[in-house]
Known about the structure:
It catalyses: tRNA(Arg) + L-arginine + ATP = L-arginyl-tRNA(Arg) + AMP + diphosphate. Its main location: cytoplasm. Pfam families: Arg_tRNA_synt_N, DALR_1, tRNA-synt_1d. It is a single chain. 56% of the residues lie in helices and 10% in strands. By secondary structure, it is of the alpha/beta class. It has a domain at 2-93: Gyrase A, domain 2 (2-Layer Sandwich), CATH 3.30.1360. The protein has a four-stranded antiparallel beta sheet with strand order 1-2-4-3. Helix 19 (473-488) packs antiparallel against helix 24 (561-584). The longest helix is centred in the middle third of the chain and has 25 residues, at 232-256. The protein is flat and about 85 Å long. Bound molecules: arginine. Residues 127, 130-132, 167, 169, 323, 326, 341, 343 line the site of arginine. Arginine (ARG) binds next to helix 14 and strand 10.
Amino acid sequence: MQDWFDLAKKIDSLVLEAAASAGLEDSFTADIRSADPRFGDLQANGALPYAKRNKSNPRQIAQSIVEKLQANQELAEVAELSIAGPGFINFSLKPSFLQKWLTTFSGSEQLGKAAAHLQADETVVVDYSSPNTAKQMHIGHLRSLIIGESICKLLEFCGAKVIRDNHIGDWGTAYGRLFYAYKRFLDEENLQANPLGELERLYKLGSKLAAEDEAVVAESREELVKLQSEDPESMKLWETVNGHSIDGIKQVYELFDIHFDHYLGESFYRNMVEQVYKELEECGLGEKSEGAWVVFHPEHKRFATQPFMYRKSDGASNYATTDLATMLYRAEHFKASSIIIETDFRQKDHFEQLELTTQKWFEKTGRSFPKFSHVFHGTIMGENGKAMASRSGDPVLLKDLIAEAIERAEKLVREKNEEKVAKGQAPLSEEEVAAAAKVIGTGSIRYAELSQNRTSDYVFAWDKLLSFEGNTAPYLLYAATRIKSIFRNFEASELEALAGKASQIETPEELALARKILGFVGVLQQTIETLRPHLLCTYLFELAGAYSSFYNANKVIVSEEAIKARRLMLCQRTLDVLETGLGLLGIPTLERM
Ligand code: ARG
């Protein structure tokens, strides 16, 4: 049964086998996709293109495959077959198979074990968040952090080895002014309490003074030159400043319970740039243009004339150079089979050029090129349609955003508590209120982020993301607690005794819910293929909908044990997938809310 976890894959292999034994050529592909629900669950579409290529009749091709498939005993227990239209083969899953699947892949643990085969041989470096030093983490930093972390969790769940690497911008020109101010105006106490705030204050102060005074400009420049020539004293200061900066960043990550394996920022690659210069020149990719070193891509519409500059005319390295070195390091040191970088859409050109350049460079030097994905996102807008800003006009800080979310969530939980008291139910304790507020608050921010197609802009609206209705975190969290509350009325031994007694699922709502639960695997695959977590969110929302149709139409707690047992089984499986899915989005579920 284990190989039926990934149904589409299993059916794909059966169709290929059947096609081969029906005498079709190797060029045949099964093309499995989901079927029109009126006709079945899955559909094999391969007969059409095959017939077109071979100038034969697609329906006959489909017929010959179906005849072979029908001889397969294993498949006969799984699905009914039919041919539709010009030659689509439909697979309609049998209720007994749905039930068998649900009992085999029971519990989040079994789901996890089965899913861990999907990406088992992959080593993926995920570069996300990656802020620049001496800047507070603000709303502009939210999407990369949340989307990147969810991608890590999804890949890990599917069995990949994931390396979370924070490519912080820690070697930029900002240090001249920052050091100038740090040496003169440091507020040690504020640095301890709010490291990023203090560093940002100093950087801004340095910039302001430089704008007013030529002498400050000169001194700042000197600081920068000293740092870039790795003068020991400057390096010491740089380390201190970066230490504080990383401490500050981690304080924000802590609020989201996000932890990186590495902080290999731009500075880490500064001594590898010589190798990049040398290799790109030697393999004939790099050329000198107007004093700088660049790579053109003649086959590309824009990059044939728009250069990828990797060494400035003054001889210095830039963002492209350190990124080229980064690609090499990730391929060689981490042996990455795949590299994912999550940033905002404005860096699309940079990463497209980086990919093209690295691909050619690796090919020319006999290295294998890992799969590369630049995962990009659009902008978060305020409700006024403009980029979200705080009252001072600066971008909203992440720590303030989270604090506000938790505060608003707490208000909601307290309102629900009052409703409970009015209904004579036990309210949540103070401790439970605080825990629920944290989960709902941070979960809502995460879900608002993840449920949007990442490439679009979206409007950040408190009322919407904290609503108990619609495709939101509170709605899904509430759905999960409602299922949990059903089980609270049972002893564990009672449930165990019932488990073996389940009769065959049969009502339309039971079957629809079962089908939806099985759909989890396909959605998981699609989500990691496209690196678009909103697909998983949409699915979870639909799952909750299928559950509520089932629950409204089919009484769970009935006197007949066999019916009660199978309906409780469906409740449990729904909860397993809801909890697993929310977990992949970084949202834990609650017992009560
Ligand atoms: N520090 C960059 C920024 O704030 C993002 C870095 C992304 N990663 C990379 N390897 N370039 O825009």
